[in-house]
Structure formats: C-alpha cells, structure tokens
Specification:
By secondary structure, the protein is an alpha/beta fold. The protein has a domain of about 200 residues: Spore Coat Polysaccharide Biosynthesis Protein SpsA, Chain A (Alpha-Beta Complex), CATH 3.90.550.10. The chain is about 50% helix and about 15% strand. The protein contains twelve helices and eight strands. Helix 1 runs antiparallel to helix 10.
C-alpha cells in the first residue's frame, strides 16, 4: 500500500498546490520582489485587429467602440480579419471603410486570420480584441504605455465580465484568475493573457501553430526570447459571459483542447528562468491536469479505506464536493464541471486532435 499512499498524497498535494498554495506563494513573492514596468504616455502607431467569424450581431458595436477610442486617428489602424464569415459580417464592416479595413480569409481558424492581419500592417504595435468585447475609451493608451519599457514585448489588460442572466460562476473565478495573473506579472511575466485585450510589438509577434491560442502561447514564447509579458490593470475590456455553468463547461472543453495541445506539444518549459518555470508548471500544467489528479486521488483513496479514519475523512471531503455540485451549489458545480472539462478535453485531444477553427460560445453575442 505504500505506492498507493504515495500516489494519493502526490495527487492531493498537487491539487492543493495549484489551487491554493501556489496563488498564496505568488502573492508573497510579488510583495517581496516586484519587478516594475516603466510606463510612459506614448503614442506609437497601432493596428487593432479584430478576428471575426459570423459576427453580424456585434461587429458594428465593436467597430464603433474602437473608432471612438481616445487615441490619435492618424496613429490608429483598425482591421477586421474575417475567417470566411458567411453571414452579413463583411457587408457591415465595409460600411466603416475607409476607417476600417476588411481582410477576407479562407476558413482556417482564428490564429491564421490573426497572422494575416499582422502581416498586412506596418504599425509598431499590434493589438487584438474579440468581436463581442468593448473597450473603455482610454484602454489603448493604457495598453501601449508599458511599451516604453524595452523589456516588455506583450501587454494584456483587465477583462471584466458583465452580469448576465443565468447561474454561471465564471465571474467569481475570473476575478481570482485576474488577480493571480497580475501577481505573476509583478514577479516576472504572466503565464496567460486574455483574448479580448492584449497587444505586442509587431517586431516581437510570433506566428504560432494555427491550432494554438495566443492567450497561452504568446506569453511563454516572449519569456523564452528574453522578454516580458505583463499586466496593465488600467486597460479595461468588457464581455458578456456564457449564461450557465453548463454552457461554460462546453466552452471550457473547446478551450482546454487547445491548452492540452500547447502544454503537450508547445515546448513550454524550454529556456525559462526558474521562477517563471515554476509558474508555468504550477498554474498551467497542474491546473489542466486537475481532473486527472482528482480521479487518481479518488481511486487511491478508495483503495486506502482500510488504512484508517484519515482516508475515510478524505473520501468524505471528496464526496461532499460532488454532492454539493449535484445539488446545484453554484461554485461547487462550476468547479466540478470545469475540472471534468479538463478530462473530456484531454480525451478529445488524444482521440481526434484539435481543430483550428472555432464557433462563438453560446450566449456571448448579445
């Protein structure tokens, strides 16, 4: 039973570390050794790239919002790069010409469309946003001021999830996740950005595998190149979340499939400084492995019930979590569904791979 005990406590310890001990450690390190970013009010040329696939419900609002930003018009280019939209997206975007440029691509996925958008601009900074997001008027100014620091290659802002009807607890998780990524940024660099609000120097942009997502791949690639990926707390984007935990579960499965691909094939751990290596393993690898770790812990726990009261207590804690989720307790149900999504997504990835194309998450285009 020694091997089973080791298996149980290793899995349980990894879960406690990734969900509780690592965030507390990151907060402590950020207080002890904050690496500051030099910020200045600068106005480089910027191309804001919006990737669209059948976004007729929101694209006009998105473009009106971008064109109203507090940023010099002569320094700002807005590009919509369409992943072969089949609805009225192209027609609606063309109404904004010449202030907005439309690029029409063959269906190849979000990253492929973003890559083409970058290739066709000469702007110093390329910024990215989703079609269903809106930005505060000063967001672009806040994003670009960190590029006054020559070590910074990637900047992401704060994504605020608006209240929506339904029982999705993503907002609570998102506030915690934003807090943790901010602490990582203070130590060195974030381990992940937000797709609704981020920017890079064009000279630092990397064309990744079209199946990869920028949120996870670009920050660690910048660090591997000796640069920083940092958080700008005063740059705000707003989105409507999916309406229910179940809808969020389906969205997470699609998202985690890409995360598994990057984690297993993206060579994430090469050439990283020690503190950032620890952050990647703790926040990314172990977080995505949470579902598998829970299954290991549960199976080993059942095998150890004859070893004393402690294992009955740990089994009771696990069953209590599952019972709370089954009873519809909001945060418990959210945690169990999202954790199970890591298992389903891994199975999908191993079984059929990951497609490059995507569909909009339900309930987010309002």
């Amino acid at each position: 039973m020694i091997a089973v005990r080791i298996l149980f406590w290793t899995a349980a310890g990894a879960l406690v570390w990734t969900h509780a001990a690592y965030p507390l450690t990151a907060a402590a390190l950020a207080r002890l050794r904050t690496r500051r970013v030099r910020r200045e009010d600068v106005e480089p040329t910027v191309c804001v790239i919006v990737t669209a696939y059948n976004e007729e419900a929101v694209i006009e609002r998105r473009l009106e919002n971008l064109l109203a930003l507090d940023y010099p018009a002569e320094q700002l280019e807005v590009v919509v790069t369409s992943d072969a939209s089949t609805d009225r997206t192209h027609e609606l975007v063309e109404r904004f010409a010449p202030r907005v440029r439309l690029i029409v691509n063959e269906r190849g996925g979000k990253v492929a469309a973003q890559n083409r958008g970058v290739r066709e601009t000469a702007a110093e900074i390329v910024a990215f946003s989703d079609a269903n997001a809106t930005w505060a008027p000063d967001t672009l100014r806040m994003l670009v001021r960190s590029f006054a620091d020559p070590d910074v290659a990637y900047v992401f802002g704060r994504l605020n999830l608006l209240d929506a009807a339904g029982d999705n607890k993503e907002g609570l998780y998102w506030r915690f996740e934003t807090w943790l990524r901010a602490r990582e940024s203070e130590i060195h660099s974030t381990t992940g950005g937000f797709g609704s609000i981020y920017a890079l120097r064009r000279s630092d942009y990397v064309e990744v595998d079209p199946r990869f997502g920028h949120d996870l791949s670009l920050p660690y690639l910048m660090v591997q190149r000796g640069r920083r990926a940092v958080f700008e707390p005063d740059a705000h984007a707003y989105e409507t979340p999916t309406p229910t935990n179940e809808a969020e579960y389906r969205r997470k499965i699609r998202m985690f499939e890409h995360c598994w691909l990057i984690t297993l094939r993206g060579r994430m751990l090469r050439g990283l400084p020690p503190s950032y290596w620890l952050a990647i393993v703790s926040h990314r690898h172990l977080r995505y492995a949470s579902g598998v770790l829970h299954l290991i812990a549960l199976g080993a726990n059942l095998a150890l019930l004859g070893e004393g009261w402690l294992y009955w207590a740990t089994l009771g804690a696990q069953l209590l979590l599952l019972a709370a989720a089954a009873a519809g307790v909001g945060i418990a149900r959210y945690y169990v569904l999202v954790t199970w999504a890591t298992v389903v997504s891994l199975w999908n990835y191993l079984r059929r791979g990951v497609p490059a194309t995507w569909e909009a998450a339900e309930g987010t285009r309002v």
